[in-house]
Design goal:
With 347 residues, the chain is an alpha/beta fold. Strands 2, 4, 7, 10, 12, 13, 15 and 17 form an eight-stranded parallel beta sheet that branches. The protein has a six-stranded parallel beta sheet with strand order 5-8-11-14-16-18, with no helix packed on it. Helix 3 crosses helix 8, helix 4 packs antiparallel against helix 5 and helix 6 packs across helix 8. The termini are far apart.
Amino acid sequence: PRTVLGCGVAEDAVFLGKEVDDPAFTTGYGFRVRKGSLYEEDANSAQHTDTKMTILLPWVTLGSNINWCDVLVAGGVGPGLGQFSEVGSGAVHFNFTPRGDKATASLLGDVTDGVFLDRSRLFLGGNTSLVGPCEADFGAVTGAGGRHAGRLAAGLNAAPPVDGGAAREFDLEIYGAVKRVVASQVRYIAQLSALAAWYAGGRAPLARGDAERTALYARGAEIVALNIAERIGQLGGLAARMERSVRRLEERAPRDARLPQQRALLRHWPAMQARLLAHGESHQPPPDVLTAALQAAQALHGPAYTRIVRALPPPAREAGRRWLAGIAARVASDDLLALLPDIVRTS
């Protein structure tokens, strides 16, 4: 409802609409919103911005001339200036590696806290480059023009210097340590699983009796499921590339410290994949205190989703966080991540 699209293209994407008048648009001129993109309430992008398999929680704002694929962005407490998460103009998320894999999705904020619309916003300065996979805490800030990878902590993150020696050591067919990448993607899938549970147990009941909103939320849930399938598929692509990497490493350096990790991913991927594909089979229903609070807030504030969520009392919020965190923890379980050993380097 009230979505305003500029001149551009949207395909296999969902916009959950506008609840405030400023900004006056959802997307600017020259936008391209591609398969798997989900713009929740009042999320928006300016001119010449491209997204794919990207999820923006309420109010998240993308500037102009941005390429922002395979990212989930949360954070922010309202639609006013200085309240919402923001990605500055010219920002790029690099989501394709030189070796050809895309196990590179970046999680900026999270779902288990982010859906309650009460966490510190993120701010990524203009011309920021993120090298996926990246994970950012709520409250993370980057200055303009920096290049970042790994983790962004709350507060100002300075851009690290470029490693000039990396080019001399690089081999396109040999992977390095893969556990960090795999763990980040499993955590991403876990957060998407929590979002799927939120759509089923949190959003869907709010749409009862409203056929249009029911259909819209159902389509949003399908986009979340599409993103989960994409991330599992891309992680499987990374696992398949381990066979070549292991063979090359065994030829060159049979005692290389990276080999146990890569062999483990190759060996355990079928079991890991089965666990991840079963992510939605045992979702617990939301706690009664959360369900009752959502219904009470809706009775008071009407259908405006962000007003409903912001009106939740603290006990309902905390119960909801525990519910979603439990779902995410079961997906990204310690025993699953422990299938890949840590790197052990000997002197």
